Queue: 3 jobs
Job 1
Amino acid sequence: MKTLVLMWVLLLMFSVTTSDTNSNTSETYTLIKASNLAKPDCPSQCGDVIVPYPFGIGSNCSIGPGFDVYCNMSTLPPKASFSEADYASIKRISDSTLRISNMVSSRCYSPDGEIRGGFNFSPNFSNLPYTISEINKLTVIGCNEYAWVTSRTESTGCLVICYKQENTLVGDECSGHACCQSSLPENINYYVTRFYALQESNLTNNGSLNNIITRPLLGEVLGMSSRESLNPCTYAFVGDADAFKFNGRTDLDDTSLRKKIEDTVPIVLEWAIGDLNCTEAEATNGSACQSNSKCVNSPRETGGYRCICDEGYEGNPYLSPGCQDIDECKDVEAFPCHGTCVNIPGNYTCKCKQGYSGDAKIKDGCSREIPVLQLALGIGLGFPAILTGISVLYFTAKKRKLVKLREKFFEQNGGVLLQDKLKTKGGVGIGSMRIFRVEELEAATENFAEDRILGKGGNGIVYKGTLPDKCVVAIKKSQRLDQGQREQFINEMVILTQINHQNIVQLLGCCLETDIPLLVYEFVSNDTLNRHIHNQTSGLGRLSWNNRLRIAHESAGALAYLHTDARMSIIHRDVKSTNILLDDNYTAKIADFGASRLVPLGHDQVTTLVQGTLGYLDPEYFHTGQLTDKSDVYSFGVVLAELLTGKKPINIERCLDERNLATYFVNAMKENQLLDILEHQVVNEATDEQLKATCYLACRCLNIASERRPSMKEVTMELETLRKFRKHPWDCQDMKYNEMSSLMIEGEEVDLYTVPFIDNSDTFGEYSSSSIKRKDIML
């Protein structure tokens, strides 16, 4: 036994000097290199887990409660945990996170569908300085079960479904068929896992969902010969999403799946010291950060801070004497030098040897100096010295004049106003954005050449540019600003600096030192949704129904984020298909925030001059001037109608009753004539449930009364549910026109507002749709 322990210690001594090649994350572990890893007389590791201060093993070895680590020496290797009786073992401690062992919640069934066992795992870190990282996701594996986790008043969950068809294969995608994943609420420190089994009574509706199996029929799934060939349990766990890969049918059949997950998928926790930020901690008792280190605020809601070494230093920033200077000259691989290397605090210098010149940090970067050339230069510098002095004075004066001119443009283009708004709106400072020089953007666009123009609009011209680092960007050159337009330009800047969402075009920076302001955005390569729907002759591929439904879902999610999840509620005010861009993967990105408005806290509407695009404009906003987030919902309803019909919002070539798509769509719904206006390929590709529910959702968005429209979050949830339907589509070749009545049954009445193309009437419409109710599309 002593020999085994000695071998284990030697192995650990070797491993701490190497990098973790099995890690899928980009986290660094610089503390491992520190000579002052733990407090004096305190162990610095437990088994293969490095335990750096502020954590500690033993009495008075940590910075305080919550950072104590218990090391169970009775196991081989020793096991680290939060306490002697803790269920979870610590797998790894990094500069900002901990990885702990997982436990999988489950619910199991007998062959006749009765619950026969299970386990619910509900960890609680409320009294510890940890929050559950957003790297984790809720994953559910099984059949016809809904599992969710709840923390405080927030919850999230997802549904797994299996089908009866023998030719239905379980893939390796965790997208709802036998496996689903869902993101967790932010800043939670505990959760409770729950299950809800779907029964046949709540899976079917007039026979429309009969191909979804119930628990007693699980033996029929995917052509299995017996019930025993399928894992009888449903599993739910929260863990590192990058550490789990669903293996389809293999995982469904694996009766040891729980243990495999618990062994390979850790829970990632974020840690921070205390609940004060750096400024507050320094003002109170001083932060724990030692010399040559700096304090960084924790991003979590509960506050706290961490310490990191300054650039050019390494060690433990929490223990005296703090971080130590790195001798770069001793690490030639990380800090190459092919000349004379001199270490300086926090950095190093590298010069060519005497008699050589060039860049010594590059191999063969130094070349021998030619004395004759040096002599010639020495002689030649005498006479030009006076001329050089005059030139310096001239260019200095010219540069000073240019600086003043750029300062003038900066103020003229609203730079001071932008700085003030960023402070008052709670945004980030202008220093956090990249401020481009005008020369950079001129070079990127070949001096704003005509062939670089991507599009023109009311607020300016957009060019395609390539920066020196080969990054392709879109550069918006605004029109010359008067006072009113300046406010609009600054409004777009303020809004975009506060937005961080994968389906919203990212603002990279700006240039305010020219007479016309410039904005630099990420480049979205695959044109607009409008072009893909309406300009098929331009060579763009036709969008399939699945792509249309996904684009609608992504766009709705971005708008829901603006309405409810951004720092302040943002109303886009110009939602339309030309403002939805598509990248190479046809991922939707909302663009053009020039007309957007921030909604003050405590308000749900703002009064403003009516602004928008004909065909998409909310009629209630048009008549009252009261802008709410439901105005974006109406505009999104028009986009849904475009995706369903393939028709433009306004078309003067159509007859008068059909010129406005919103009116046309609502009337067709009311008169059971949707089949006449829906795009033929959409009808062929969409499932019955998807088409019914999407049409009804579009009409709800187009309701005359804003309070009767759904919120964008509700729209997003319904579209997400619709994307999970996978059933037989309509066979429109054999479908008779009067079968369209299956979309409508007399019953519930919903008022819809028709917007005439020529403003000479005040028309209100109603339609009946009791068969298309939420329960028809929600499981």
Note: Residues 1-31, 200-229, 425-431, 727-779 have pLDDT under 50 and may be disordered.
Job 2
Amino acid sequence: MRFCWILIASTVFLAGNCVSAEKVDFVRDIQPLLEQHCYRCHGAEKQKSGLRLDIKSEAFGGGDGYGPSLVPGESDDSPLLELIASEDEDTRMPPSGPGLKKAEIDLIRSWIEQGADWPDGVDSATLEDRTDHWSFKPLSYDPNGSIDQFIRIQLEQHGLQASAPASRANWLRRVSLDLTGLPPTPEQLAAFEADDSTEAFERVVERLLASPRYGEHWAQHWLDVVRYADTHGFEVNTPRPDAWPYRDYVIQAFNEDLPYDQFVRQQLTGDQSQNDAATGFLVTAAALLPGQIGKDDISKRLARQDELAEIIINTGEAFLGLSVGCARCHDHKFDAISQRDYYTMQAFFSGVKYGSRPIQTDQNLQIQKEREALVPQLAKAKQALKAFHEQSGLPETDPVRNELVVESDPVRFVRFTIHDANLHPSLGLIEPCLDEFEIYGSEDSEKNVALSSNGAIATASGSRESGSHKLVHLNDGVYGNSHSWMSDTKGRGWVQIELPKAMSVERVVWSRDREGKLKDRLPTVYTLEVGGESDSMEVVAGWTEAQIQKSKALREDQQVLEAKIANLNKVPKVFAGIFGTPEPTYRLSRGDPEQPAEEVPPAVLAALGDVSLPMDAPDQLRRQKLADWIASPDNPLTARVMGNRIWQWHFGNGLVSTPSDFGRSGAAPTHPELLDWLAGEFIRSGWSVKHMHRLMVLSQTYRQSSQISIDSQRIDAETRWWWRFPTRRMEAEAIRDSMLAISGRLNLETGGPGFDLFKSRGGLSGFPPIESFQGDGLRRMIYAHKIRMEREAVFGAFDCPDAGQSAAKRPQSTTPIQALNLFNSRFTMDEANAFASRIETEVGDDPETQIARAFELALGRNPSEEEIAIALPVVESHSLSTLCRTLFNTNEFLFIP
């Protein structure tokens, strides 16, 4: 019987082994199942959760959140099997339909256990080479080309013809607004019209490029890209008082035509060359302040990752035109940027933190040396004062309770004089504080006769009054800091109690805070005096006059040194990052700081180079290596991206219409040969931005009329082939600045902290707008204190970015709010009145002469007879100011012709 059972069991075992040992064929058995159930969501068309199952390398690589989806020989560790076999309807795959049958799941399990053999060459699709992309390839161009040549070729291919040249007046207005953001004056127009030489156009361009107004206007374009603001953002949106030096640095860089490769390097490494303000680029984005971050380590780690992410996004988009930030949680969906690439790029910045630091000029370095020399002197002075106090034998004071025994004749007054108080660890010398002053007499040793309720009156040398600190709290019988007296003088002061009648005093009790919560502001050196009916005072406790004077002298020595150091500490600072020892950088699974994977070194994007550094490389070397790689003429992206930006800022649209996305999800260039020629010319010129301006604004393409041709419009309604100059509305800042220039009130003061557009600079109280401006408020709008995520009340409606996100390209919307703001705002009315006053001063009271001058100043031309006929009754019936206000609202004023 036993033999039979063994035989039966052996037969079953052998049979089972025969079934499991049967080789599962991928092509015959597994691939059809994947195609039927998985390719719809994880194939060539879609790759949900980053998982693709129709290509071997991608299937084994896995998706965003689970690591490798197939682990050969380990079915229990293979997420693919876990998901298709799950009993949870919310996680089981595929998400709809009946799912795989048990036999099909078992088949996949067996295939994995057998080693998951997936033969090469059987995939139903070919993996696209994401590095084979036009923007990743080296520059290719004919150095003998020209803008007009490349444009003409495309026009001919599309059956288009270039438009006739614009009028000289229109070109002058166009190039003036384009390069400086301000219209030409009537005098400049007259001089240009009178000069019919071929060099006249070049002279205009050189004049405009030499003007300080040029840098002010073109810096705004760059500040849009890097989302510059003077506040931190988020809910509280507190000011960044030291941010503006970066804005001024950008203005100066454009005005001086700083070579763009140096511009790039300085924004990453300016601290290494006394260009401290330049690295403001690294920290222009919004950031949470320490008090807005949770106190737990998890919140701190997440906030740190968010900070670093903003630096990577800025660097990738501004310089390279790539959305590197998309790879924080998983490999980029479109571009050849892996998640590992993201973190190796992050490692370049792992020593950078948000914050302000002193500007390292030669003068400031000398000031720091002077400060450092005074620090040991201050320490010595403090020690001398401390030693004197210890040697003088004054009892050590206690913040909770101090009792002084007084055996006096009957008195009416008791005065407590404070000569010194302890120091707060962070505030230095501060005002002393008492929460209660008590007096006990011989008639009733338990009765506090100093209480106001007992008829005593308190006076003081001076009091700092607030909700918690008032003189009445000195003798109200209530203990604690919330009911206390505070002196109005740092380190000293006196209080006095006038008793209701003369009486003998046995003891005095006083305290800083009977509740024992606070120990700062504690009197440490004092004198107790009592007085009779004549108010003559007698010292009964504390120091002698000689001791007081000695302490005072030592204290003054200390204060003199403290004041000197405080003044030397007022070195100008810039919100441009704080640099320290780099933190280790790990690839984070799903971008989660709580799921660190392998540690990674600093390295550039693998698809574009092989620059890397050891993990222990110092911060400065890291940023220097990255800057060298980005600013190299061999980098295929840097010159292309900036060349395209300059073209866009002149023509309203780029050769690549997605200026910060040169990746696969961005637009292809309309004129690839021209783009590469511009990039090459940019490098050959020594990276001169002004050279690029000259090429563009002096080209026939730029000098075309903006007049619409119906035939050409049918072929190219969006003017992508530049058969005419595409007119566009001025930016919000240029509109405001031009109104001020024409009214004669524009303040051309440059640099420094920004003027206010709002009555408050930040916080939870909101941002009520300022409606009328004077003085600093009449400066160019780039010098305004820019509040993040809060649009300016009038001109914010004109698509002015709020610095919440990068604005590589401003939209051109048309809304009723724009018209309402520009016609009815207090600003417009003020400038219209100023404009009218200017005209009256310049030409007198004749209405027709006034109308002519108004048109000349606002629109750069004389009015037609019909326009005079329309304007004359407006001036006579309403006012010259009304006409000025109307001209500010015309398209001819608002648009670049």
Note: The chain is about 40% helix and 10% strand.
Job 3
Amino acid sequence: MEPPECPVCLAAYDGDDAVPRVLACGHSACETCLARLPRALPHAVRCPACTQLVKFPPQGPASLPKNIDLLRLCNPGPERADRDRSRRGSLDDDRRVNRELFVVKTWSDQFYAAWKEWILPYDALSVEEDRGGDQRDFCYKLVGRIGHVDSGLLSMRCREKQEISLVPMVSLSNGNQDSSGFRFDYVARVLTCLSSIGEEALNELALILRASLRRQCRLCQVYGLWGNLKEEVLYLVCERLSGQVLQVFGELPQFDGIDGNNVSKDWVSNFAITGMEICEGLISLHKQGLIAGCLSFSCMKIDEFGHAYIDLNEVLMLERKVSVVAGKYVSDGKGIDNKELCNIFHELLESDALVSPEVLFELLRRWDAKLDDSGSSHLIGYGSDVWVLGCMLIRLLMGAAFPGETWSMREEGDSDFSVLYINWLENVGSLLEKKVTLNFVSLRLVLLECFNLDPQKRPLITDVRKCIRELIVGYQCCNGGIDEEVVREDPEVHCLTFGKLCRMACKSSDAWRKELHGSEHAGGADNQNGKVGVDKELVEGLSEQSVKCKDLRGHLDSITGFAIGGGFLFSCSFDKTIQVWSLQDFSHIHSFRGHEHKITAVIYADGEQQLCVSADSGSGICVWKIHSPMMEEPLKKWSEQKDWRYSGIHALAYSRNGYLYTGSGDKLIKAWSLQDCTLSCSMDGHKSVVSTLVAFDGVLYSGSWDGTVRLWCLSDHSALAVLGEDIPGSMSPVLSITGERHFLVAVHENGSIKVWKNDMYIKSAKVHNSAIFAVSLEGKWLITGGREKTINILELSGDELQVDIRPVGSIPCGSVVTALLSWQGKIFVGCADRSAKVYYSGK
């Protein structure tokens, strides 16, 4: 026979290292393990064998009695003793392996943790309509500090009334499953939308968000994600800078040529500073592994200190301008020929949409897969932005956009694009040679090199910046040993113009504009029938199941409680009746009548007999037989001792030890024997009305209007602990409690909830704006309802160290919610307007 062993470390008992000590529940464990067991409460511990909460002496486990009978059976050999010590040494590892895991939802806990901090609250933005012009325009601002993001790189706080810009990303699902009224929570809708856009878009979004947090990156700050529930659009919220590069730089003086004699030093310095700022903006972008691909002067913004920043909103939306220009030449499935390609390039130059040839070719292939790629077979890289930089600097030098005569088809309308491109480059060089002389010669040569058809032969941005700086500090100083940090070409570089976010922004923008202004304002190839903009896969429903609702009609007054047992649902009401319903089809089966006062509580007792027990505001208690045939009259009936100062029974609970517990207005908890209906004892400790009771795992939990939750031992009805007294904050009355094996949740009159796990306080949260009258917990799902006339569905998720309270959805009700019960995925709801409903999922 195997000798008896400790249920914790599995070591055989002995009189030295593993002394068996007897707990109040009757189970034994070795003294060493009992000393190491975690104790959330000072004078109580959970038995490792039955998990019952029992008293624990303040002197430690050594003061508990030894189990002499077990010691007599123990005589371990040396091999067994060595094995026991090894088991005891790995005790902590065994506990970690046996931890309970939470069920994975639509998105994982890791996904939630990664993206939650980037979701801005719905009320974080204010919208102001600009009525100054003929067209409808809006100005969005932050209404205050919207949160705190700490990535280890930058602690970001948003300024109050910060003006922002919105990048439309994707349409939000409306969150309504069906006519039941169930609606997913704002955060849950945004997370579900994010989880559906695909790994490519998520990786790109994460790359942009990380880049915007870095101080050295000249990308306008990205504050996070915001869902506009009215427009059903998910936006990327970005910083909005009002300074324009051309406005700051000013207009070029009127003269025939630029040299050191007829150009003021102020203008040269202004040009050099502006040019270097543009270079710095692109260099900082490249350092983050990003390429713009498409730029215009509207994308370059100036902050209050004169530094140039790249506006992400403008970059993502610039592809739309390219698509509008290209869309005029793509129709009826015809391909883009050489002449149309040249016209597109010319039109983009004049519209200030600066796109290098290799980027343009790649963009056009989206509309025409048969496009001849002989014009550009070069890879897109940092050199693509060098081409754009050259265009911007020439624009600053010339004082106007590229003149139309620099690009001319002449008589070579059918010529190859590369031939016309070389002609255009010669025209640009001739124009620069006439306008730019003397000290600008080196800059002119570098600018012409920026337009080389091969991106690999274009100069580095740092080389361009050197030439610009020469205009201020002189050639000798520039070669004086200043080290330039060169951004090396990275094969993993990401081009914003070709990213998934850019395509999503254009599509979402079309749908958004069409809904606001009508179809005539929404152009582009993505507009087809009706509301367009987002792939079907992005707006799929949040669940394959739908939420259904069924009315339970029968009560004539406010519903006060539910109970389930024996295959039936019991509901009690102020109308002094208890209605019995079938759990199969929710049909009405029977009515119990016998109370003389308003019924306040009902429970199911599964002892030797299956019984239904109810209590009323007049301190009356009724026991009902639920076996067929059911009777209208109670099986047993008695009353507590009445006191005119207090208002009857408020709560009921039942324990398998055969006791019925009542919580009353006289601040007492009474234990009654269901066999003879006699009072066994009274538990005193609360300072106000005992409003709620629940019994599980050998412990009776009681909540009171005094704001505390007390724990009582079911074996001897002694007090174990008090929860809530040491928690900071106001002692708001506890109106209801619920719990399962690991969790205990209390809801309060001020709309907050408090959560304990394994008897240890975890956290509190305000989930309603007013009193919460009812709560139910099933697994990880927490359902609350109260004066706000809304049922909130929350998820308790996390691990042993931390628990998170996540709002999932809500169900609007037409009246105050007074009773709740969750059972096997169904939610039973009772309201003050006598209505009772059951919500369940159906395919």
Note: The longest strand covers residues 803-812.
